[in-house]
Amino acid sequence: MVVLSDSFPTGLECGTLNANVQPGSSVAIVGAGPVGIAAMLTAKLYSPYQIVVIDKDEKRLELAQKFGADKIINVQSFDAMEQLDSVVDGRGFDSVIEAVGASNTFDLCQKLVGPGGSLANIGVHGKQATLDLDKLWDRNINTVTISTLLKLFQSGRLSPSLVTHRK
In this protein, which residues make up the domain named Alcohol dehydrogenase-like C-terminal (predicted)? Predict the structure, then answer.
């Protein structure tokens, strides 16, 4: 009951749904504890093409693989970033889920998310973590409504007349 009332709702609602996991997407989950594994299992329900689980604990990584991770990567491996980049051809992941709650893992997640991707933070942070907006602004994180907004503009339901200043 604890797993169904805590780990799975957090993994699904705060992780999978907030990270906008979609069919055919690439997913990176940093943290292979109970909540990270729950995020992985619920993400699988949305048919992504690749789920990579990242941790430093080999036993947790083995469990993630047993439960169906497509790839596991030990973050302490000397070539961890190269392995991660090779999974997505250097483009970054569509969905990234932070399930540890540490500033260094949050920093890693910011490096992993690709243009137009989503980053969901489900780890409980005991200390401050920095959101590097200076590095994320041009990746259009969570701008999943652009296509809808374009259609609304083309149909005349939205007007660009909200511009108030012109040079």
Answer: 34-145
